């Protein structure tokens, strides 16, 4: 794991706010979002359009920065402006050596490895149905085993099964994991009754 994997998106948001003068004035969150995208486009771009910043990802990073405890790092004047608190300025000062070394190397900042999506993909890859399928191409026949993979009950409604399947497929697609995507698709095609098909 590279050191830049350890940088959380909220840290990039706070750093970007500081770079835009957020220590002495309120900065519009749209400007901070653009700066986040400039610094770490792999983190803050649309999934399907790497050339566009995703405002929702920036908003989530802001939200996480605002709820940091014990110290509040970011304060607000209205819905659009943010400024660093004294604690936020102290945090930036203390973390400048680490962040500047990682964010200004000229190398792209990759997606963090510990995201919930990465965790979900790792759990699927460790599951018995996936391991057996990857080794033998045999699809799971026991509904309860697949229920564990999709984190639902064997007697959940077909709607719930389909919803969990589509969530897992979306994560696999976003993670560019075609193997898991193929596994989930084949399971759905082999057992349409599980998914209300």
Commentary on this structure:
By secondary structure, the chain is mainly α. The chain folds into 2 domains: 3-103, Arc Repressor Mutant, subunit A; 116-195, no CATH class. It is 58% helix and 5% strand. It contains 10 helices and 3 strands. It has helices at residues 9-19, 29-39, 41-44, 55-66, 86-103, 116-126, 128-136, 143-150, 158-174, 178-190; strands spanning 27-28, 74-76, 81-84. The chain has a 3-stranded antiparallel sheet. β2 (74-76) and β3 form a beta hairpin. α1 packs across α2 (29-39), α1 packs across α4 (55-66) and α1 crosses α5. The longest helix has 18 residues, at 86-103. It is elongated and about 60 Å long.
Summarize the structure.
With 197 residues, the protein is mainly α. Helix content is 58%, strand content 5%.
Question: Keywords for this structure?
Answer:
3 strands, elongated, mainly alpha, 197 residues, single chain, 2 domains, three-stranded antiparallel beta sheet, Arc Repressor Mutant, subunit A
Mean pLDDT over all positions: 84
For the sheet with most strands, the description reads: 3 strands, antiparallel
Strand content: under 5%
Order of helices and strands: HEHHHEEHHHHHH
Cα gyration radius (Å): 21 Å
Give the class from helix and strand content and strand pairing.
mainly alpha
Shape: elongated
CATH topology description of the largest domain: Arc Repressor Mutant, subunit A
> In order across it, which strands form the biggest sheet?
1-3-2
**Estimated helix fraction:** 55-70%
User: Would you report the number of β strands?
Assistant: 3
Compute the number of helices.
10
How many distinct domains?
A: 2
Alpha carbon gap, first and last residue: 41 Å
- CATH class placement of the largest domain: Mainly Alpha
Q: Which spans have pLDDT < 50 for at least 5 consecutive residues?
A: 1-5
**What would CATH call the architecture of the largest domain?**
Orthogonal Bundle
